[in-house]
Amino acid sequence: MAAVVLIFDFDKTIIDCDSDDWVVGGLGGAALFGELLPTTSWNFLMDRMMSELHSQGKTIQDISDCLKTVPLHPETISAIKTAYALGCELRIVSDANKFFIETILNQHGLLECFSEINTNPTFIDEYGKLRILPYHDFHSASHGCSNPCPPSMCKGLIIKQIQDLMSSEGKKRIIYIGDGKGDYCASLKLTEEDFMLPRKNFPVWGLITNNPSLLKAEIHEWINAEELHKVIIKVISAALSAEDRTPESISMDRKYQSVSRLPHEAVSQVLRVPH
């Protein structure tokens, strides 16, 4: 079992843009999106935009092709593949949506690195239209969180569910990486054994720095992909180098020394450790 679990946000964390904006802008829907945004919740608006784009003749393939052009920094790719090669479990908790996230990760050869993606579900209806649903059905009931979470998703509730599942699997440490307001609630659920990696000068960083004493987790900020790569490896090393060193953690350290010397393109070939 993995002793370290990395949980990533997606937009402006794994990718350096917003996937919703990328698709809406790339397929010519920015003007309508801007008109509807002031009076429509984001999740419902994205579902509406998929209907509008479909009515304009845009297909699922058009959406997929647009998503495949989303850039992903080589340092981010390397950080994810290195963490996976070191035997860490990787998850995503994001208020984007399943189709967008999986298409982008698959394009960059990263989808297999993640054991679970918690995000807004999607499906393609009988007319070939992409539908986007909320993770929490706020149409029938609110998730009830008082933190600045969007109505479609409380990441704090998701982290609590993950922690509950992990409790029967032995000691694990969470490394959480995010940038937005929605990541703040998740950060408050982390324990003294965990790590929070907020993106500096982004909303979650502002909320945390306003009162850092509210967090139990150790905080490590980052600015860009290069710095994120360094921080992730540093924190993984710290998590695997606790005072009570186990044979497994020593093995992980040795494995990291081997992985860190490999070029980016070779990292994916390192022997995977089962989760």
UniProtKB/TrEMBL annotation:
Cofactor(s) needed by this chain: Mg(2+)
Positions of Mg(2+) binding: D9, D11, D179
Transmembrane segments: none
Keyword Iron-sulfur attributed: no
SUPFAM superfamilies from the UniProt entry: HAD-like
Cross-referenced NCBIfam families: DKMTPPase-SF, HAD-SF-IB
Protein name per UniProt: Inorganic pyrophosphatase 2
Species this chain originates from: Acorus calamus
